[in-house]
Amino acid sequence: MAVINRIAGFAEEMAGWRHHLHRHPELCLACHETAAFVVDRLRAFGITDIHTGIATSGVVAVIEGQGDGPVTGLRADMDALPMQEETGADWASTVPGRMHACGHDGHTSMLLGAAKYLSETRCFTGRVVLIFQPAEETIGGGRIMVEEGIMDRFGIQEVYALHTDPFGALGEFRTTPGPIMAAADEFRLTVKGQGGHAAYPQTCRDPMPAALAIGQALQTVVSRNTDPLAALVVSLTMIQGGSASNIIPEAVTMGGTVRSLTPEVRDMAQARITDIVTSIAAGYGVEGILDYERNYPPTINHAKQTRFAADIAREVSPLVIDDLPPEMGAEDFSYMLESRPGAFLFLGQGHGPSVHHPAFDFNDAAAPIGASFFARLIEQRHAL
Fold this sequence. Notes:
This protein is α/β, with parallel strands linked by helices. Helices cover 35% and strands 25% of the residues. It is elongated and about 80 Å long.
């Protein structure tokens, strides 16, 4: 790995930052202590143009280069997950029921490492905008930061992000132009009838047969309404109804997720699910009430910026895949890529427990690689 020597020199310090963050996980928008730690480090690096309180606890900092040039945003997420940690690490979470199970502590440390190096060297033109974002795991802190105007406020022209990857070899960069991660939508529906005694179904309007028919029909959205070469996942994950074997319930509730890679498939899936719920319920003489919520859009990399990012990755690592098949997970960096050109890349940390698993832990050996990628990207895009 062609890690920048200066960054390799403070790799242990980066690990220390990461361990501190791992011990003190915070959730959703309430990343106040994490933000304060980030600000303290940035100030120690000599960075003075720091803005706090964006999306409640987000931080944006600007490093000025030498003279006029591009303005590039680099993003790291900061929030943890509501899970009980099972790593047994010396730096394990000190907060019961919370842990950094998705590597955001590592993402923050990588961006801090790049910030330390870039603030020391300033071997670039223009400006670097460091984006430390809360609430990636929940309500979309990336969306909120974009809605609060960070792209225009700081003049960001392109934006880039890394995400740790426990399915890739240490130092392996994986990306692709176009869709790289899916849109993630949620649906909840209620099939409402008229309850009564199970011995006298003719006096009731039983919601249960309609709910079962709807559950089966939802799978036809993928199998019969979608091009076999287009990606779509419809998962019915919840069904609740009834309280006793001799009572026909008043209502049955159901819920699940819909994941897609293109706006066209996304629109089609919502329309078909709406039709299925209302028409099947009507056919059974009950009412179908659908609440369909669009969450994160697909994460769509821009072709030019992805090629550039892959070329930078090759300067850091011999392990680069630039035609990664899209994944059906979701990521709120998608909102930033909707607002500005850029690219999202995975960075392998060596094979181990999956993200969102209680035994997951970020590999500190990946941090200098990620920080070197960010630094090289700025030095090349903002070349003197």
